[in-house]
Amino acid sequence: MTLLIRNAHAILTGLPGAASRHAGPDMRIRDGVIEAMGALSPLADERIIDARDCVVYPAWVNTHHHLFQSLLKGEPQGLNQSLTAWLSATPYRFRAAFDESTFRLAVRVGLIELLRSGCATVADHNYLYWPDMPFDTSDIIFSEGEALGMRIVLCRGGATQSRAIEQDLPLALRPEGFDAYMTDVERLVGRYHDSRPESLRRVVMAPTTLLHSAPGAQLREMAKLARRLGIRLHSHLSETVDYLDAARAKFGMTPVQFCAEHDWLGSDVWFAHLVKLLPEEITLLGATRTGIAHCPQSNGRLGSGIADLLALEKAGVPVSLGVDGAASNEAADMQSEAHAAWLLQRARKGMLAQPRYEGGTFEGGADAATIEDVVRWGSAGGAQILGLSRSGTLQPGMLADIAVYRLDDPRYFGLHDMAIGPVACGGRASLKALLINGRMIVENDSVPGLDLDALRVDAMAAVKTLQQRALA
Ligand SMILES: [Zn+2]
């Protein structure tokens, strides 16, 4: 069974340099894999997607999310707080309020929001685990992903020790035992982890916040177990200056040095944020090929800053994009995230301008990131970081994870180069099709069988329920 994407107006591939665009205009998909690209004649009985006036992208790979937060958007107590105060005000205050049905609904809302932005793969950093938990959040994430046909990388978060902000709070905020954590990671790997390239289920070792979630000796054991099991490692790191202060006060070293001391650097490791780094930390991350999940919208919303992707990429750090949780990013979709990454890298460079009479040689920040760079970070970069060897780029032999954007909103009218529209114009372009492993998951901008209006009503009711149950 083959499928032909025909007459695409433009194709971005996720590859670097001259290969970032392909003339197409056609792509043939056979058995879930891109078989050919070029001028192709339709075969008899071949299914055809008419991509005239459409722009084709590799489906996005989102490398950092917290799906449970999808019902915590714009929560007033945390809306104008920086990271630490926001953590107490929103995610921690609402944590115990989730039950099986609200958790499942939050996951579903988040996955559908991502799908409709053209995203195929999500690495969900789930940290809703506590002792004697009455429902299995890991299983819910995998089953909701499976129902939609998405590629799910479960980053098994959690903590084996408490932070000060968690003291005197209910069971749902207490840490797990170290043995219970390790046993559960092994259980999840045995039950769900599929290391084949076309896999829709992966598991990652991901204690929530490396500096705070477990003692150093345990972090070393976690890294050892992950490498024995052949899974990747992920955590939050250096989102704000608090990380530098905490690492110096607690351990007498920088956060990245702390990672090095505990075997938490390498091409199988990636960290969310990396906003506040010292130059020697960037060098060490690059030398070890440790990756970044860049989350510009969340970093902006929380006032944390803007990661220096130029310096990181130059040092050798693999770069990817993540939307982070919706409690700190009300537009938790990959098109918005890519748009923000594009603008903010340019703004960041522009902010370094010094007047020429003070010796400045500033030439402008507009060369900080091209649309092709941002697409590469959001697709190929993510696939590399997650170890998905046949996802993230559009070329023969790769899995058919493909977004076909229609650009039928006035926002996209008048473009001289339609290829850049989905990122440069922002917003959410309607999807002619989203394919994952060659399967049509979104068709003519809707998920077959999904009642969006019912989902909206359920989400409104769930927000009320959560507000009633949240801690004061
Ligand atoms: Zn996060």
From TrEMBL:
Pfam short name (any one): Amidohydro_1
Which family does the UniProt entry place this protein in? Answer: Belongs to the metallo-dependent hydrolases superfamily. ATZ/TRZ family.
Species name: Rouxiella badensis
Q: Which residues cross the membrane?
A: none
Instruction: Give the matching SUPFAM superfamilies.
Output: Composite domain of metallo-dependent hydrolases, Metallo-dependent hydrolases
Any one Gene Ontology MF annotation carried by this entry is: hydrolase activity, acting on carbon-nitrogen (but not peptide) bonds
Segments forming domain Amidohydrolase-related: 55-412
Record keywords: Hydrolase
The cross-references to InterPro entries, in alphabetical order and at most eight, read: Amidohydro-rel, Metal-dep_hydrolase_composite, Metal_Hydrolase, MTA/SAH_deaminase
Protein name as catalogued: Amidohydrolase
